[in-house]
Amino acid sequence: MKRFIYTILLCILAICSTYAQTQLVFTPTWTAQAQFAGFYVADAMGFYKDEGLNVIIKHPSVSRSGINRLKSGESQYVSLHLLSAIEMIENGDELVNVMQYFQQSALMIISHEPMYGLRSLDRKRVGCFRIGLSNLPIAVARSQKVNIEWIPFLSHTNLYVSGAIDATLAMSYNEYYQLIMAGQRLKKEQLLYMRDIGCNIPEDGLYVTKQYYQQHRAEVDKFVRASKRGWEYAL
Question: Are the CB atoms for 105 and 202 separated by under 8 Å?
Fold first, then answer.
């Protein structure tokens, strides 16, 4: 009888140990929004639990970004824009893209006046994100010798609504709708999508450190599989 109880206790300890090891933290790029819908769905529908994973979603803050959490080991998985990840890798960070869940560019420019290509913004003030999302339009403008004064903002549309800038970078699933809800009556001529000017570069992907990828391939596969289910369900 004692041996039986002892065996049960060992099994419980083993299960608890496995559970603790598979507790994972995912940090999106920014605050909660439809941009990360697939991960929220995977969590709410129990897809991660189906894979034996205990996943916690922790959002970043202004002072504590997702990449800071990844480097410190506080988060095992983070969402990053492809161009931001490429820049980080070039600077020496060892990252692995384990799932590219945005296949197209949602980046756009919204102007108060009609636009006829990027050159319409020559000598204009254009709001831009402080993070890597702005790298592409800045590079394209420079290559085309379009002189734009880039005005960085954190995450809001006040600069545009107040008229402090002539145009602003925006995401078609986020700031575009914020502007509409703020009362802006935007016409087609005021919208310029980066994908329509030859810059349809994939954006958000799921990243882990190279070390974590090498040591936890099975868990990575499970997390990706469950996350993919979440995105497919959301769609």
Answer: yes
**205-234: pLDDT as tens digits:** 999 999 999 999 999 999 999 999 999 999
Q: What is the DSSP string of the chain?
A: -HHHHHHHHHHHHHHHHHHHHTEEEEE-SSSSSGGGHHHHHHHHTTHHHHTT-EEEE----SSS-HHHHHHHTS-SEEEEEHHHHHHHHHTT--EEEEE----S--EEEEESS--SSGGGGTT-EEEEESSGGGHHHHHHHHHTT---EEEEESS-SHHHHHTSSSEEEEETTTHHHHHHHTT----GGGEEEGGGGT-----EEEEEEHHHHHH-HHHHHHHHHHHHHHHHHH-
Identify the band that residue 20 occupies on the pLDDT scale cut at 50, 70 and 90: very low
Which two tokens mark 125? 């003030």
Look over the chain and give the mean of its residue pLDDT values, rounded to a whole number.
Answer: 90
What confidence score (pLDDT) does residue 61 get?
82
pTM score: 0.82
Mean pLDDT computed over 151-164: 89
Closest CA to 161 of 173, 170, 149, 172: 170
What pLDDT score does 19 carry? 46
C-alpha dist (Å) from residue 70 to 63, 86, 89:
14, 16, 14
CA 187 to chain centroid, in Å, comes to 27
Rounded CA-CA distance 73/212 in Å is 10
